């Protein structure tokens, strides 16, 4: 409560009127008051405008608990807030995009630093660079660059924050052509955990730049980031194809995935996402495949034909601008659905170097049996196969902290269900299921894209200096 009073005094000129404790006023005013631009929104929670004006978390799983929410207008405001929080030992968390990462139960009575006002995107065509703010999404990237005849690797869902995805590596469909999002990152402007405003790039604060590329959320708050962009492949026109299969096709599908394990065989222009689910009404397993091919239909056809040969119950293909791809995927349904917030969803991930059809037959059968008996569960298992040739060939000196460049297929267990009462039951089933996937993954030790592992790696490399003062 000490916290609420102090901060309220600091911003007494602002939107929310709170009872003032004169004793704390001068302290807080002297720290924050002179630096905060008029117009910076500060809410003490609960506040009726908070859900409308501030970015809300995508999933309600293991949510952080906030006492105050601040929406800074400038990088200097942000630095002031961070210094204030450090000085008074308050936990804070940055909110950029749709806030989908989960597992923040230890963040309690914290300051929600909402970055919504950092929302400009600028393209420098002559130098092939794009600069985005912390609130810009992957859809902003696609729209701006497509119109200019350029492209950049992004993720699967248009609603994800561009910087939020990047600081965990940024995995996505164009990875086969251009590598991970971190491989295109050139520099960031950030407020460090100590409250200093710095630029990090290959030449300025290179250690910090290394850490940001994989473990970014732990070293400071990034306000804007600059990336290299590329001329659009095939004029920016690509093939999107969607398939649905009956349960009888699964064996052949897993065999096809195995035949595509090699990056010599599976084209760098291709990206597929396989979703294994369960249709409660029909009481049947469901399998859908969403495929992108970055190039003309003639080049895509030989690969799409291999999926057509598996006897889909329904399929279609179309040629689209690359800015329309993620919205079109899954017969126009998948990612529109993925972007709906407010559900209780947790994620478990795993990385594969190879596909073991027997493992997948068994994983899918257990998943279906378990799900069929639990009407409160609405999850699916997603396998994303991207060519990892470019990602793997990035020289050590250019790599950054992210260690999982060998992953050819990313597995995502997306578990949506009716709330915390079922957490234990979900974990008891999915943790061992993931262990069984690891066993035949082709990796000696479990590979997942969890940032915790990446942060541990950054710490081992002696990143304590950059991390000083932060709560990681
Ligand atoms: C539907 C869906 C689809 C997805 N698809 C992909 C995909 O295709 N490829 C992919 O790589 N990932 C994907 N993700 C994962 C996503 O990239 C991560 O969850 C990412 O952390 C989201 O960033 P965010 O800012 O929206 O989330 P948040 O949960 O708000 O942020 C994650 C962490 O980063 C911190 N953070 C946020 N912004 C900043 C900032 N500007 N500076 C410093 N720290 C910051 C937060 O404090 C938090 O600790 C997907 C997630 C969902 C829900
Ligand atoms: C800071 O806060 C944490 C918990 O939020 C507490 O454990 C720690 O002792 C505090 N440190 C100081 C110096 O007050
Ligand atoms: C990108 O396109 C521009 C304009 O068409 C052209 O001048 C340039 O050479 C191209 N760059 C590459 C790397 O192909
Ligand atoms: C696939 O695309 C080709 C080329 O546009 C088109 O001729 C064909 O009808 C499409 N097939 C389906 C099932 O969508």
UniProtKB/TrEMBL annotation:
Signal peptide positions are: 1-15
Q: Which Gene3D superfamilies match?
A: 3.30.465.10, 3.40.462.20
A Pfam family cross-referenced in the UniProt record is FAD_binding_4
Matching entries from InterPro entries are given as: FAD-bd_PCMH (IPR016166), FAD-bd_PCMH-like_sf (IPR036318), FAD-bd_PCMH_sub2 (IPR016169), FAD-linked_Oxidoreductase (IPR050416), Oxid_FAD_bind_N (IPR006094)
Residues annotated as domain FAD-binding PCMH-type: 61-232
The record's section on SUPFAM superfamilies has:
FAD-binding/transporter-associated domain-like
Q: Which PROSITE patterns does the UniProt record give?
A: FAD_PCMH
Record's keyword terms, sorted: FAD, Flavoprotein, Oxidoreductase, Signal
Q: Does the keyword Signal apply?
A: yes
| Family, per entry | Belongs to the oxygen-dependent FAD-linked oxidoreductase family.
Name of the protein in question: FAD-binding PCMH-type domain-containing protein
Source taxonomy: Eukaryota, Fungi, Dikarya, Ascomycota, Pezizomycotina
């Amino acid at each position: 409560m000490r916290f609420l009073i102090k901060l309220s005094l600091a911003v007494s000129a602002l939107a929310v009127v709170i009872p003032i404790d004169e004793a704390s006023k001068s302290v807080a005013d002297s720290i924050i008051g002179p630096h905060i631009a008029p117009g910076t929104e500060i809410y003490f929670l609960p506040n009726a405008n908070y859900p409308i004006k501030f970015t809300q978390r995508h999933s309600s799983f293991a949510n952080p608990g906030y006492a105050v929410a601040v929406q800074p207008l400038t990088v200097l405001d942000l630095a002031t807030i961070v210094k204030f929080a450090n000085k008074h030992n308050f936990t804070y968390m940055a909110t950029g995009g749709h806030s989908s990462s989960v597992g923040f139960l230890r963040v309690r009575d914290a300051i929600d630093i909402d970055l919504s006002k950092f929302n400009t995107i600028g393209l420098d065509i002559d130098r092939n660079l794009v600069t985005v703010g912390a609130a810009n999404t992957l859809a902003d990237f696609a729209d701006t660059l497509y119109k200019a005849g350029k492209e950049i690797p992004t993720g699967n869902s248009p609603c994800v924050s561009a910087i939020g995805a990047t600081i965990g590596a940024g995995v996505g469909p164009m990875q086969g052509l251009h590598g991970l999002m971190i491989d295109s990152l050139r520099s960031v402007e950030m407020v460090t955990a100590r409250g200093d405003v710095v630029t990090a790039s290959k030449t300025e604060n290179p250690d910090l730049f290394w850490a940001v590329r994989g473990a970014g959320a732990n070293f400071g708050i990034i306000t804007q980031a600059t990336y290299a962009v590329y001329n659009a492949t095939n004029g920016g026109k690509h093939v999107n194809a969607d398939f649905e299969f009956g349960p009888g096709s699964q064996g052949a599908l897993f065999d096809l995935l195995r035949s595509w394990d090699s990056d010599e065989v599976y084209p760098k222009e291709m990206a597929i996402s396989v979703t294994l689910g369960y249709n409660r009404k029909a009481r049947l397993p469901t399998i859908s495949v969403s495929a992108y091919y970055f190039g003309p239909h003639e080049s895509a056809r030989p690969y799409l034909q291999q999926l057509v040969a598996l006897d889909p119950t329904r399929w279609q293909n179309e040629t689209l601008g690359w800015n329309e791809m993620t919205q079109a995927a899954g017969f126009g349904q998948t990612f529109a659905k993925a972007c709906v917030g407010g559900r209780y969803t947790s994620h478990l991930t795993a990385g594969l170097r190879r596909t073991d059809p027997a493992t997948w037959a068994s994983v899918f059968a257990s998943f279906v049996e378990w799900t069929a008996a639990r009407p409160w569960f609405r999850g699916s298992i997603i396998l994303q196969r991207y060519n990892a040739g470019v990602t793997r060939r990035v020289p050590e000196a250019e790599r950054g902290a992210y260690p999982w460049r060998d992953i050819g297929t990313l597995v995502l267990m997306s578990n949506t269900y009716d709330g915390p009462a079922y957490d234990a039951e979900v974990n008891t089933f999915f943790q061992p299921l993931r262990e069984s996937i690891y066993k035949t993954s082709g990796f000696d030790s479990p590979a997942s894209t969890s940032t915790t592992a990446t942060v541990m790696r950054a710490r081992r490399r002696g990143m304590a200096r950059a991390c000083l003062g932060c709560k990681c």
